[in-house]
Specification:
Blueprint (H helix, E strand, L loop, with lengths): L5 E4 L15 H14 L3 E5 L5 H13 L6 E7 L11 H8 L4 E7 L2 H8 L3 H17 L3 E7 L1 H7 L1 H14 L3 E6 L6 H14 L4 E5 L6 H10 L4 E4 L13 H11 L7 H4 L2 H11 L17 E2 L2 H9 L17 E2 L7 H10 L9 H16 L7 H11 L8 E10 L9 E10 L2 E9 L2 H13 L10 E9 L10 E8 L4 E8 L2 H19 L5
Helix pairs in contact: 1-2, 1-12, 5-7, 6-7, 8-9, 9-10, 13-14, 16-18, 17-18
Length: about 525
């Protein structure tokens, strides 16, 4: 019989405690909709009453959110020791949120009770039981987060178990054991959970932080011992080193452990949700994140690629499509013929292994990478290279010359002025242009576009999205070779190009020209 594991997402509450994450109310509503589409069972929306943003979120959620699969949950704590149940603002906030489920935390480590709360141990047990019971009387499903449980169990086993018993006496529907400091290892999680289940007859969940790098492993260890709920965040965001990463937990449960959580059909939405949360949080996605990272199924070595193209199982632990990802064959100095043939096929170019041009191309690739070119993020430049080498390239213009100057005033607060002049020909027609910019590369880009847009109006659609410079030969100081990587895009797609030179303006120009060439090729009959 298949075991079902509840997924409890706390991205909108615990995740926002990460120092680099701040969601607006609108962001939180949009993320909640995405989590619902993924099939998350419980979405912790925040702590109502603790701040205006969370209060507004729950107010708007009641009116605007139409969740189909998920149950919105409000988070809070047990009542304050100096207040009664009816007057406690925390419990009032939980009830005002209007959710059917609430999750409250209480101290399970005697150290925290004595120092953080400053109350007798017995009084803490009373707070827990009364708070849970009060919420149950108000018709709520109640989850109890036993904060710092594993540290508390190791310090005073008897008291930590009394905390769980008090929550159960109050009527808690689920006891969530929290590794709040993230310092427990998987073997300890398993051992402690076994002991707990011998003493406490309840249902258990797990909430792990990642301070020891084992948040996911700890969560899976708890599931193996009988936990029915895993709490975590999308992309593992959270305070300090983050929370257990649901983007790893969920596929591990479904694909590795044979358990059911959101269901395999929804797994294909996992990467898009991961990217959406990063976008809302204004974070750069971790390309090397398991399952959902852009590099999670990227293959670079020629031997690997050769085997992969015969049978993907040789170097992939799952089919990337199952989690909404895709296989990537990366071009590099490690590439072999298999990689080159595969990439050429992607470009719509029919190269054969025995074709002399194929081996010539591979040698050219390795020679250029030795000079400093890198095509991993610049596949547009690589496609242009292939077309040039095999005679499928038609130049869109011919450069005569360009000049870039910088004028810097000695006066304070006067911005430097960069100016670029360019002379070129399109189908024999001469064209010159000049432009200014906030820097020499910006000025050159504007002058190049100005000269070409009369002939190719579609270039007005192209936007420069990213510009990176890497110094390759640091021993040469300011005469070092540099590599420029550009990312450009239009209304349909993005593409990357590369230029290398000892002159940063020349390297930038090479990458700019490739980006323009690629756009014009894409709009022509080539692609």
């Amino acid at each position: 019989m298949t075991r079902y594991i509840q997924i409890y997402d706390t991205t909108l509450r615990d995740g926002t405690q990460s120092e680099d994450v701040a969601f607006s109310v609108e962001d939180k509503l949009l993320v909640a909709e995405k989590l619902d589409g993924l099939g998350i069972h419980y979405i912790e929306g925040g702590w109502p009453g603790s701040n205006p943003k969370d209060s507004e979120f729950f107010e708007r959620a009641r009116k605007e959110l139409k969740l189909r699969k998920s149950r919105l949950t409000a988070f809070g704590s047990t009542r304050r020791a100096d207040l009664n149940l009816e007057s406690d603002p925390i419990l009032k906030g939980l009830l005002s949120a209007g959710t059917k489920t609430v999750c409250i935390f209480g101290k399970s480590w005697d150290l925290h009770v004595k120092i953080a709360l400053g109350i007798p141990l017995r009084e803490n047990l009373q707070l827990i039981q009364e708070s849970v019971n009060y919420l149950k009387k108000n018709k709520k499903e109640v989850f109890f987060d036993a904060e710092h449980f594993f540290d508390g169990f190791k310090a005073d086993k008897k008291y930590a178990l009394e905390v769980l018993s008090s929550a159960l006496k109050g009527g808690a529907d689920l006891l969530v054991l929290c590794d709040t400091n993230g310092g427990t290892l998987p073997s300890e999680i398993s051992g402690i959970l076994k002991q707990v289940q011998q003493k406490i007859r309840g249902k258990f969940g797990i909430h792990c932080h990642n301070d020891s790098g084992v948040g996911v492993a700890n969560s899976l260890a708890a599931v193996r011992e009988g936990a029915i709920q895993v709490q975590g965040t999308i992309n593992g965001i959270g305070e300090r080193c983050g929370n257990a990463n649901l983007c790893s937990v969920i596929p591990n449960l479904e694909l590795k452990m044979g358990l059911k959580s959101i269901g395999r059909a929804r797994l294909s939405r996992l990467k898009s949700v991961s990217q959406f949360v990063d976008e809302m949080a204004n974070r750069a996605p971790d390309g090397h994140q398991a399952y959902v990272g852009d590099s999670a199924f990227a293959h670079k070595g020629g031997v690997h690629v050769h085997a992969m193209l015969k049978d993907a199982r040789t170097y992939e632990h799952i089919d990337p499509l199952k989690v909404g990802n895709e296989r990537k064959i990366v071009l590099s100095e490690l590439s072999g013929l298999s990689t080159l043939l595969h990439k050429s096929k992607e470009f719509g170019i029919d190269l054969k292994k025995e074709d002399p041009r194929t081996k010539s191309l591979l040698a050219k690739l390795k020679e250029m990478e030795n000079e400093g070119f890198q095509f991993e993020g610049a596949e547009a430049s690589f496609e242009i290279l292939i077309r040039k080498e095999i005679g499928l390239y038609a130049p869109h213009f011919a450069l005569h010359s360009f000049k870039v100057t910088d004028e810097i005033s000695g006066q304070q607060n006067i911005q430097p002025v960069s100016r670029a002049e360019i002379s070129l020909a399109v189908d024999g027609r001469e064209e010159t242009a000049a432009a200014t910019g906030v820097g020499p590369v910006h000025a050159l880009d504007r002058a190049l576009r100005q000269a070409l847009e009369r002939f190719y109006p579609a270039l007005k659609e192209v936007r420069l999205l990213d510009y990176k410079v890497r110094v390759l030969t640091t021993a040469k100081g300011t005469a070092a070779t540099v590599r420029v990587l550009l990312e450009c895009g239009d209304h349909e797609k993005h593409w990357g190009t590369v230029g290398v030179s000892e002159n940063i303006i020349q390297a930038s120009y090479k990458a700019l020209v490739d980006s323009i060439d690629y756009k014009l090729m894409k709009d022509s009959s080539f692609l």
